[in-house]
Write a structure and sequence with these properties.
By secondary structure, the protein is α+β, with helices and mostly antiparallel strands. Helices cover 21% and strands 37% of the residues. It contains four helices and 15 strands. The longest helix has 25 residues. The protein binds zinc ion. The site of zinc ion (ZN) has 6 residues, from helix 2.
Length: 236
């Protein structure tokens, strides 16, 4: 199993690792800092440089519990060591927007009692859909934006870890997506906690402290159909 270094420290931008397996479309590494998908976050873009060359990692997929780093072209050999480097600006921007969406979903749950029906995060902007049957008013959007920015400035720490399904069931709103149920048969669930603000099921990676986000703005609202009022957010 590939060791997932980003869960220990999401701020590592490069590291040495080794090729364990070579497949048709990519490679399995001994350990990795290349993050996959969670809450609509896009996979990292990265390079892997060995004696035989530099390989561009364009995506990630999982198969039978294995993480495959998909390469654009060329393949290193099994056993080769190399340096893995992620596109840090891209990753850090998505970490900030991801933490923002957790704060936003917590604010909207508290003020409007609605859950999330979808989300999508790119380095440029984040989109989140809520199970609302009407648009948010201009005043409500301003209230939400002010509340998120207040929480960001208050500088709350984020932590993550695992808990048992029994513990998870006792936490109101732990599963934040409307369709979400606790997965059956799992011994433990990953969560992310923003101190005093939010705790929810999440396999993603976040900024250490909300002040790192700086500030955000809600730039658009769209009606994407029943139970899908979409807000678009950018970093300021
Ligand atoms: Zn998340």
């Amino acid at each position: 199993m590939t060791e997932l270094i980003y869960y220990d420290d999401p701020y590592i931008r490069e590291m040495e690792t080794r090729v364990m397996e070579v497949l048709d479309d990519g490679i399995v590494l001994d350990s990795t800092i290349v993050f996959g998908r969670s809450c609509g976050v896009k996979p990292d873009e990265a390079t892997f440089t060995t004696k035989s060359g530099t390989y561009t990692i364009i995506d990630r997929r999982e198969e039978s519990g294995q993480i495959i780093h998909i390469l654009e072209e060329g393949r290193p050999r099994v056993g080769e060591k190399g340096i893995l480097r992620i596109d840090w600006a891209r990753r850090f921007s998505m970490m900030k927007l991801h933490t923002t969406l957790h704060i936003l979903s917590s604010v909207v749950l508290e003020k409007f009692d609605v859950l999330v029906t979808g989300s999508d995060i790119t380095p440029e902007k984040a989109k989140i859909d809520f199970d609302m049957d009407r648009n948010f008013t201009k005043e409500e959007l301003q209230l939400i934006e002010d509340e998120i920015n207040r929480i960001i400035k208050e500088d709350h720490r984020t932590t993550s870890g695992v808990i048992s399904p029994e513990e998870a069931e006792k936490i109101p709103g732990f599963i934040r997506s409307k369709s979400g149920k606790l997965p059956q048969g799992l011994k433990e669930l990953r969560y992310t906690k923003i101190e005093d603000v939010d705790m929810q099921a999440d396999g993603g990676i976040h900024v250490r402290s909300t002040s790192e986000i700086g500030g955000v703005k809600i730039v658009k609202q769209k009606n994407k159909g029943r139970g899908r009022r979409r807000l678009e957010i950018v970093l300021t």
